Amino acid sequence: MGATDPIEAERQRIRDAHLMPDRARSTARGVHHVALLSADVERTVRFYQGVLGFPLTEMIENRDYKGSTHFFFDLGNGNLLAFFDFPGLDLGPYAEVLGGLHHLAISVDPATWRELRDRLDAAGVEYMEESGTSVYFRDPDGARIELLADPLGEMYGNKVL
Fold first, then answer.
1. Would you call 116 exposed, middle or buried from its count of C-beta atoms within 10 A (0-12, 13-18, 19+)?
2. Does residue 3 carry a pLDDT above 70?
3. In 75-143, where do the E strands start and end?
């Protein structure tokens, strides 16, 4: 695919129009949390804390739905992964839809990446390894998760921040 490829040409047009070399500082402080849905709170805790090593930090009632639990895992650097359960609601299985979550990429150092890949093996979790730096798998509710051995702000040798 060269510069004459229509997809790459469109990508370059958008870069030229919107990617500013002297971009302004973001108005955001960072991601407070990303919230996913859980069908079973304890199963989710066993997976994210027990298999992946993300410490559970708190469990509170979801303010928007009585009886629902809002619980949080530490992803490092002040970032949280949160979950809700919605007992009594008949929610369907995970689905990729426009505007929905495709996958959540979590940065870990290379040694931890290898350890977590081994822990996925030991837990019988199927995964796909890509380029020796990414491992993709589904959590117990079907959400696609990526563990990425690249540093924050980099992807496959490219600075993205």
1. buried
2. no
3. 80-85, 104-107, 127-130, 134-138
Query: Of all helices (H) and strands (E), which one includes residue 150?
Result: none
Q: 156 pLDDT exceeds 90? A: no
- Report long-range pairs for 59-67 (Cβ below 8 Å, ≥24 apart): none
Q: What letters, b where the CB count within 10 A reaches 16 and e where it falls short, cover 47-70? A: bbeebbebeeeeeeebeeeeebbb
- In terms of DSSP bridges, do strands 144-148 and 104-107 run parallel, antiparallel, or are they unpaired? parallel
Neighbours of 74 (CB within 10 A): 17
Residue 113: how many CB atoms within 10 A of its CB? 20
Q: State which amino acid sits at residue 120.
A: L
Average per-residue pLDDT for the chain? 90
Q: What's the pLDDT tens digit per position in 41-58?
A: 999 999 999 999 999 999
